[in-house]
Design brief:
The protein is 31% helix and 29% strand. The chain is α/β, with parallel strands linked by helices. The relative contact order is 0.16.
């Protein structure tokens, strides 16, 4: 009986350790290459987050946009894309202050979880971030809407 308890405890502990290790590796890979290894977050826009009816709440997403505002002590960012603005809370990102001071990115790509604030407005609780080329013109120049 004691043996079964010890084995079950070790299995439960190893599952928690491997999940934690997977999250750490995902965070590092996102910072290095802009993608995750183990999880599959959805790439969404600010419009999809703001108009969501609850399906995205608590889910991992990737959002990308231009940095509009950096909060005091680098605890939050406001980014914008072609559809709107979005609050990014960075209290769980290790080294965010150093990254923002060192890189001073014009645009960022953020991996995080969609959450709801006190008034029901959505925000993203960041897990990792990296600089991006959001809005940069491609090899054929800037995109223009077709008429």
């Amino acid at each position: 009986m004691v043996f079964k308890f010890v084995v079950l405890s070790l299995l439960a502990t190893s599952c928690n350790i491997s999940a934690s290790l997977g999250n750490k590796l995902d965070g590092l890979s996102f910072e290095w290459v802009g993608g995750t290894l183990f999880s599959e977050p959805a790439l969404v826009t600010s419009k999809e987050i703001h108009l969501d009816d609850g399906d995205l709440a608590g889910r991992d997403v990737i959002v990308e946009g231009e940095v509009q505002v950096t909060g005091k002590y680098s605890t939050h960012l406001v980014i914008s894309d072609e559809f709107g603005r979005l609050l990014i809370v960075m209290t769980k990102v290790e080294g965010a202050e150093g990254f923002l001071e060192r890189e001073r990115p014009r645009s960022v790509k953020v991996w995080g979880t969609v959450e709801r604030g006190k008034k029901g407005l959505p925000y993203v609780l960041a897990k990792a971030l990296t600089s991006s080329q959001f809005g940069a013109p491609g090899p054929t120049g800037p995109k223009t809407p077709s008429t």
